[in-house]
Specification:
Helix content: 25-40%
Radius of gyration: 23 Å
Strand content: 15-25%
Order of helices and strands: HEEEEEHH
Largest sheet: 3 strands, antiparallel
Shape: extended
Strand order of the largest sheet: 1-4-5
Distance between the termini: 71 Å
Length: 144
């Protein structure tokens, strides 16, 4: 069964810990996703059941024009762990429309702090293979 969503403060604390653990491990990924909820949240875990949410025959895309702004679901995970000893960490929170601006400001700070100190991907092997392919491909051809 899914655990309830975290509060935004707890989400940011655990997200910073997730970035720190990935940095110390020298490998791994952190996946950040966000999506709009399809129905407003009355309280954590309880969805609204108003007649506005029920699509009619005239308007099959009723969710494209909601009567009020909808909350956003933010998720973070460490992906599929390489070791079987590691566990998959899943974090999620729901942000109300009124709090989105302040949330994204703090989200950007935590995200940038998490990206600081990460190494760029080593692509030298791919560049060497590409150069070798170009060099090797030209030797077998005859010039006219």
């Amino acid at each position: 069964m899914d655990s309830p969503h975290l509060s935004t403060d707890e989400f940011f604390t655990r997200l910073a810990e997730l970035f720190e653990s990935r940095r110390k491990a020298d490998h791994g990924c952190v996946f950040l996703t966000q999506k709009r909820r399809t129905s407003p949240i009355l309280s954590y875990g309880t969805a609204s059941t108003t007649s506005e949410q029920t699509p009619t025959a005239d308007d099959i895309f009723a969710d494209l024009h909601p009567a009020s702004p909808l909350p956003v679901l933010i998720r973070a995970t460490n992906g599929k762990p390489a070791d079987e000893t590691d566990e998959k960490i899943k974090l999620s929170t729901v942000v109300k429309p009124e709090a989105l601006e302040t949330f994204y400001t703090r989200y950007a700070e935590v995200w940038k702090a998490g990206m600081h100190g990460l190494r760029k991907r080593d692509r030298s092997a791919r560049k060497k293979a590409k150069a070798k392919k170009r060099k090797g491909g030209g030797e077998g051809e005859k010039k006219a």
